[in-house]
Structures are given as structure tokens and as C-alpha cells.
Design brief:
Number of strands: 19
Radius of gyration: 27 Å
Shape: elongated
Number of helices: 9
Helix content: 25-40%
Low-confidence stretches: 83-125, 169-179
Structural class: alpha+beta
Distance between the termini: 66 Å
Largest sheet: 6 strands, mixed
Number of domains: 3
Mean pLDDT: 82
Length: about 425
């Protein structure tokens, strides 16, 4: 029996997922629960396992392709778990294409979806094809009406067009491919697939920049006293197995600042025509990972101590860098913080993590002479400074709101004892 595997709802409310990488090949024999494909949604990548032992008959989605939840993404033959992959049919039609023309039984995926699938058929009239297949067909000069589709109900997919081009176009196809890929590449050039986390970041940043009118306010903070407090807290944290950085102190200060300036803690509900001001402070913490920038969310910051935040942040950051963060841990932020201070950079204008109203940029610590007011008069001492840059959605807040928030943040961080009140 051939089973259809549908893309499950990986996280609550997931509408679609991107096929990042197939972990097996067509014809491979897989065991039950063996990972078959990596799928990414909301920047979280998860491995989807086989629902039963069997042989992979066909893939119905390509790496880099985004498919809706409930779509069939591969076929699994459970009657030939130990059989070798069948040879290609006469005329060059592959097992993948044959499977698309064969009636199959349907097994419910993890999401519980099920249904009856009719044999794939050649559509009449306009050829059914995915957008990427149409684009490649135009670039390669392939007549879509002559292509046998391997997708559901005979839909032509990109791989079908490429196989058709390779089979029949010869030198003309090679010339078309060169044209489609642009100018000749240099000896050291590389072409890297634009997919996965990188593409998700691009989509999110483009949406933010083109939707939100940003403005940025910058403040310099003397953190000399905070450095002393953090050194003591670091020693205390080591006794408990907790790594204490400056970030938990900043998070606590942000939570207190948002309590005083709630217009920066929330989002715009455009459909309802309402500004939503959240009661809880859920901070998205931008995290540098081998796969790109990921923003896990620490929830309920307003009700946690600095040490509690340090413990939670360390554990969450570790899982994020290892690719083990859950999809639900990447949602529902009310405000975000991005910190490049450990890398470098004096100032930046961070892009808001849509649909948040604001994002705080944290920059490197710099030692330099500073004027200190004392009862005996002004003195010059070596002080430690950190710059903060706050980007705000100008639709929902004004420059004065951002300046007041940063001024209060500065007050808290320059007198870190206030964070315990």
C-alpha cells in the first residue's frame, strides 16, 4: 500500500512550511519514526519522521519550496520496505512520475488530516503548474503542455520542467540555462540557495521595513556601577550553574520601562483598527546562530528576578543555537532586544521585529574619561559606557515617547540597585 504523507501543523496556527532538506532519497528504505525531511516554519526547523516503515516512492515538494499545511509532501510504499528501488520506466519516466498516476490509499498525518486521493490525471485546457515551474519553463523555452506533471492531480512541478529540458533540448537548453543564470560567473563565485532561515529573515525584514515607518533614538549610558554589580552577580551565578551576562539586567530595566511607557509594549491590530497594549512583557532576544538570526521569546519578564532571567535566557539561547528551539518559543513577543555588543559596533539602527512596536539595540562597552559629579565638585575618571539605540514604529509612538523611555532606561542602568525595587 502506498501512503500519502501530508505536512502536519508543526506549531499551533501554522499555515505553511518550507522544505529545507530531504534527509533521504527516492527509493530509500526507511524505518518507522526515521527522520525524512527538515521543515521550517516561523524560523523553527523540525525533522518530520516516517509514519511507518517502507520505501520512499516520490517527493512532491522540492527543497526551498513552501507548501501549505495538509499538502502531500511524499509517498511511502509500506509493502516493499525491504525491496530495492524500481528501475525507471521505458521512455525515461521516473518512479516519481509513475506514482503520481497511481491510485493511493491515504493515511492521516500527525495533524489528523485524511481523505481520498484520485489518480493523477492530465488536465485539459490550461496546464496546471506551480509558479516556479512556469518561470523555469519560460527561461528554458519548454512547452508546459508537453510536460508530464508529477505533482498531485498531475500538477507540473519545477523538477518536471528541468527533466524535460535535459531530455530533449540538448545544446539549446544549455544556452537557455546560461541565459537564465545571468552573466558568466568568475572562478571564485558561488551560488548559494536562497532558502531556509536566511529567506525567512529576508521576508520578515522586508515586511518590517516596507510596513513600518521607523525612527531611532540613541542614548549613552554610564554603566560603570552596573559592571561592578554584574561582576558580583556573575560569581553568585557560577555557584548555581548560571551564566550571568549584562542582558538580564537590561531585560529587567526594559520591563520596568515598559510598565511606565506601555505604548511601546504591544502591536497594531490593523484589521480591528486598534493598538494592542500588552499586560505581560514578552521579550524577543535576537540570537546569532550558525543558521542566521533567530529571535526566541522570554515570557513574563516583568515578574522575574535578574537571576531567574539569566537562567532562562542561557538555556533558551543554547537550544536556539543548537536548532532545538520550539516554534511556539518564537512567537508572541511584545518588544525585542538585539545585542551585537560582544562582536563590536558603536551604533546601529535596528529593524523592528514585526509586529512589535519597538526594538532596542545594545552596543559594545567602551572605556573612556568621563565627568563625575561629587560633593567636592566635578572629577574626571575612567568610566565605562554603553550606547543604546531604540527603533520605534512612528505610527504608534512619537519621538518624545522613545526619548522618555530611553531616559528612564538610563536612570535604571546607571543606578542598578533600582532594578531590585
Amino acid at each position: 500500500m502506498t501512503l500519502e504523507f501530508k505536512l502536519p501543523d508543526i506549531g499551533e496556527g501554522t499555515a505553511e512550511g518550507e522544505i529545507v532538506k530531504w534527509l533521504v532519497s527516492v527509493g530509500d528504505t526507511v524505518a518507522e519514526h526515521q527522520p525524512v525531511v527538515e521543515v521550517m516554519t516561523d524560523k523553527a526547523t523540525v525533522e518530520i519522521p516516517a509514519p511507518a516503515p517502507g520505501r520512499i516512492v516520490s517527493f512532491l515538494a522540492e527543497e526551498g519550496e513552501t507548501v501549505p499545511v495538509g499538502s502531500v509532501i511524499f509517498h511511502l510504499d509500506t509493502d516493499s520496505a525491504g525491496d530495492p528501488a524500481p528501475a525507471e520506466a521505458a521512455g525515461g519516466e521516473s518512479a516519481r512520475t509513475q506514482a503520481a498516476h497511481t491510485p493511493v490509499a491515504v493515511v492521516a498525518g500527525p495533524s489528523g488530516d485524511s481523505g481520498v486521493v484520485a489518480p493523477a490525471r492530465k488536465p485539459t485546457g490550461r496546464t496546471l503548474a506551480v509558479p516556479s515551474a512556469r518561470r523555469v519553463a519560460r527561461e528554458l523555452g519548454v512547452d508546459l503542455s508537453q510536460v508530464v506533471g508529477s505533482g498531485r492531480n498531475g500538477i507540473v512541478r519545477r523538477v518536471d520542467v528541468e527533466q524535460m529540458a535535459k531530455a530533449g533540448a540538448g545544446e539549446q537548453v544549455a544556452q537557455s540555462c546560461a541565459t537564465a543564470s545571468g552573466a558568466a560567473s568568475g572562478a571564485g563565485d558561488q551560488r548559494i540557495p536562497f532558502r531556509g532561515v536566511r529567506r525567512k529573515i529576508a521576508e520578515a525584514m522586508s515586511r518590517s521595513v516596507y510596513t513600518i515607518p521607523h525612527f531611532t533614538v540613541v542614548e549613552e549610558v554610564d554603566i560603570t556601577d552596573l559592571v561592578t554589580v554584574r561582576t558580583k552577580a556573575k560569581a553568585l551565578g557560577e555557584e548555581q550553574g548560571i551564566k550571568v551576562t549584562f542582558m538580564p539586567f537590561i531585560m529587567k530595566a526594559v520591563a520596568l520601562g515598559l510598565a511606565r511607557h506601555p505604548m511601546l509594549n504591544g502591536h497594531l491590530d490593523e484589521e480591528a483598527g486598534e493598538i494592542v497594549q500588552r499586560g505581560d512583557v514578552n521579550l524577543g532576544i535576537a540570537t546569532d546562530t550558525p543558521n542566521g538570526l533567530i529571535v526566541p521569546v522570554v515570557r513574563g519578564v516583568q515578574s522575574q528576578t535578574v537571576m531567574q532571567l539569566a537562567g532562562q535566557l542561557g538555556e533558551l539561547a543554547e537550544r536556539t543555537r543548537a536548532g532545538r528551539v520550539k516554534a511556539e518559543e518564537l512567537r508572541d513577543s511584545t518588544f525585542s532586544i538585539t545585542n551585537a555588543g560582544a562582536i563590536g559596533g558603536t551604533l546601529a539602527t535596528p529593524i523592528i521585529n514585526f509586529p512589535d512596536i519597538a526594538i532596542l539595540g545594545v552596543h559594545r562597552i567602551v572605556k573612556r574619561p568621563g565627568v563625575v559629579e561629587t560633593p567636592e565638585g566635578d572629577k574626571i575618571e575612567v568610566r565605562q559606557y554603553m550606547n543604546f539605540s531604540l527603533s520605534v514604529d512612528h505610527r504608534l509612538a512619537d519621538g518624545a515617547d522613545g526619548a522618555r523611555f530611553l531616559a528612564y532606561l538610563r536612570q535604571l542602568l546607571e543606578a542598578p540597585g533600582l532594578l531590585a525595587l
